[in-house]
Structures are given as C-alpha cells and as structure tokens.
Design a protein that fits this description.
heterodimer, A: alpha/beta, five-stranded parallel sheet, five-stranded antiparallel sheet, 9 helices, 40% helix, elongated, B: alpha+beta, 3 helices, 28% strand
C-alpha cells in the first residue's frame, strides 16, 4: 500500500467558516463539500473559532464574518495574526461597509467578500486565495510506481515468511526522498528498523558509486543470530529487507532471498518516472 | 604478524578472486592498504566505508541481533567485505574481490585474518 497517498496533506484542505448565522455556515459548508473538494469546519462565534483553532492544526483558511455577537471578525483576525499567522483569512462584510473592508485589509485579510454573495463567487475567491497561498487543491501526485498484481506480491512475501520458519520477516520497502513505505504487504508498519535500513541502503549505494565500486545490489549483515539482507531491486528504488535466522545457512538464505527478489521483480511493474527518480 | 603480512596472506590465499584489501578504523582513518590498491578507486580515502559500518552496527543493535560478524556488499562489479576486529569494533578489515569470487573462502580467510589482526592490534594496544 502506498502510504504517501494516504497522507492527509494529499487530501482536502481544511477551511474554517465563522458566522453567527447558522443557516449561512450550513449553506457554505454544503456548497464547499459537495465535490469533496474541501473539508469544512463551522463555528458560530469568534470564541468558538478560537477554540477550534487551538485544537485543530491543519486549517489552511478562515472565512469569517466581521460583524458578530461577542468578539468581532476583526478581533478574531487579530488573534489569528498573533497565534497562527500562516492561516489565510477572507472577511465577509456587509454590503457598503467600507470601514470594515479597510480595517480587514489593514489587518491582513487576503480578500473580502460582500454579503450577499453567490456561492460560486465564494468558491472562486477561496480557490484564488488558496492558489496564492500555494494551497490550491492539486490532484494527488501519481505514485512513483505502480504495483501490478499486488496480491501476488503479498502472497509471495507471506509464503516465504510463513513457510520457512527461519525467515523472521521479509518486507519490500521503497525509497523515495527520505520516505520509506512498504509495498504490497500490511504485515508491519514502518518502524525504526525500516528507517535505519533505508538509510543504510542509500548511504552504501552512494559510497559504492563514489568509490567506483559499482552499482549496489545486495547488503548482507551477518551477526551472531541473524542474516540481515537488504536486496536492491536495481534501478527501481525498492529493496527487499529480510531478517533470517542464522541456522538456515548463508547459501540457502541467499538463494531463497535472490529467488524471492526475482519473483517480486516480476510481480511489480515500475513506471518510467519511478525508474528514473528512485534509482538506488 | 604485521598488518601488511595479514593482508598479504589474504591476497595469496584468494589469488585470482582478490582485488584489494586494507585495515580501516571505524573513525574512517585507515591503518594500512594493499599497496597495489588502484588510487583511482578512491578507496584510499575510505572514510565513507566507516560510515557504512557505523550504520550497520546501529541497525544490528535495533534488530537485537547480537555481535556483528561481517558486512558483505555486492555490486555489479565486486564483492566487498567489511570484517570488524575487536568487540566493540574499533577497526575493520576491508576485502574487495571479484563479483564471482568464492564467498565461503573469503569469509574463512577473513576469520583467520581477523584473529591475527586482533592479536596484532592488542599487541599495539589498539583494541
């Protein structure tokens, strides 16, 4: 499973709508979420909005009325500037209230929108502001590689790790920038061992290149109890990470893992970008 | 037995499979290298290999695998062995052999060499 695509930042951006008219916040919320384009949180006062901001870290934009009972939208804007200046602010003002528009602008509101407004206008303004902030919804990036026959990869990995008792685990990991994520299996979440092993593969690959030793294919670490094998699927940015009881013997362990690597290489189809971007 | 003699024995016993060898501190400073090591490989400034050993030791600790015996890197051109000397290792013996070289024989030679090196390093109060 490609964890990268599950990351919340790859999904919808969160917008906080603040207005003391419940029907308006409800209506805006319905319109903004209809295409699942945004995630919307509603507050019916500045005080409630501040509470939400304290608890929620991923809000990108606030769309707030200026005139509200209790703290005004401008006071809310002051608090936002003080505590979370990275959040964009769109002010909703009553028609003709030039003074509110000016104050909102002076305090750093990115836009103002006069009530009453059509939803399509609000959606357009939100799109523009998020675009300027670099937060415009982008389609999630296509994965660097595609797993074809994922079930067969899982099957192969499970078979090896379950049928041969000396194999403690086999994981297919991928390197992409500094991110390690597993492909095709849901056995164990990424942990410190994965990070260390990916660091080792990357570091060793670079050292081998620098010392003109050639392209790294395999790292075997023999210890008192285990063989740790990191088998690169050359040019594909992937490596098979296996932990094997030493009782199995080096020759047999190596044969099994090489055989397994070949099987997995056949079960995976790597797209052109993956080949170029993720070469170990 | 001197370091150079240990390396000479490895070279002699592995004969055609042999490419180069050396003794390097985990701090990256090398003690000695086979004089025949080609300079162009950059091996003579092999501090980076010490980083590989350090990273591998960290992984071994995380996996709770016990003592590190050796690290074997296979590339499309060579087989590289990093054989730690001492516990915890302060030095390691580097062996580079041809990619189709005999791994079993290399490990045997490194185990022999490791013992001689340990004694020599102990004699020199280096481990």
């Amino acid at each position: 499973m490609n964890k990268k695509n599950n990351h919340p930042e790859n999904g919808r951006k969160t917008i906080l709508i603040v207005d003391d008219e419940e029907t308006l916040t409800w209506s805006i919320s319905k319109n903004l979420t209809i295409n699942k384009q945004y995630k919307v949180i509603c507050a019916n006062s500045s005080e409630e909005a501040l509470q939400i901001l304290k608890k929620t870290s991923n809000i990108k934009l606030i769309v707030s009325d200026i005139k509200m009972t209790g703290k005004s939208g401008l006071e809310l804007l002051d608090e936002v500037n003080k505590h979370c200046p990275q959040i964009g602010f769109i002010a909703m003002t009553a028609f003709g209230s030039d003074d509110d528009k000016r104050k909102a602008r002076e305090k750093g509101a990115l836009r103002y929108i006069e009530k009453p407004f059509g939803m399509e206008v609000l959606i357009q303004v939100i799109g523009e502001v998020l675009g300027e902030m670099g937060q415009l919804i982008q389609p999630p990036p296509s994965p660097a590689y595609q797993v074809v026959g994922q079930a067969s990869v899982s099957e192969v990995l499970s078979k090896y790790s379950q049928d041969i008792k000396e194999i403690i685990f086999v994981k297919l990991n991928a390197l992409q920038g500094d991110i390690v994520f597993q492909v095709g299996i849901d056995l164990v979440p990424t942990d410190q061992k994965d990070l260390l092993s990916s660091g080792l593969v990357k570091q060793t690959g670079e050292v081998c290149r620098k010392l003109t030793l050639g392209k790294l294919e395999l790292i075997v670490i023999a210890t008192e109890k285990h063989y740790v094998m990191l088998h690169c699927l050359t040019g594909q940015g992937l490596f098979l990470y296996s932990l094997i009881e030493k009782d199995l013997g080096f020759g047999k362990a190596l044969y099994l893992i090489e055989h397994l690597t070949l099987k997995i290489a056949h079960a995976l189809k790597i797209n052109a970008n993956g080949k170029q971007d993720n070469e170990i | 037995m001197k370091f150079e003699d240990v390396l000479h024995d490895i070279k002699h016993n592995l004969s055609r499979d042999y490419v180069s060898s050396g003794i390097i501190g985990v701090d990256g400073v090398h003690l000695t290298f086979d004089p025949a090591t080609p300079e162009k490989t950059g091996l003579l400034t092999a501090a980076e290999l010490a980083d590989v050993v350090k990273d591998a030791l960290e992984l071994v600790r995380e996996v709770k695998s016990g003592r590190l015996y050796y690290i074997n890197l296979t590339t499309d051109k060579f087989k590289v062995f990093l054989f730690p000397v001492g516990s915890p290792p302060k030095f390691f013996c580097l062996l580079i052999m041809k990619v189709n070289g005999n791994v079993g024989k290399a490990i045997l030679e490194l185990e022999r060499a490791g013992e001689s090196l340990r004694q020599e390093l102990e004699h020199n109060c280096l481990v």
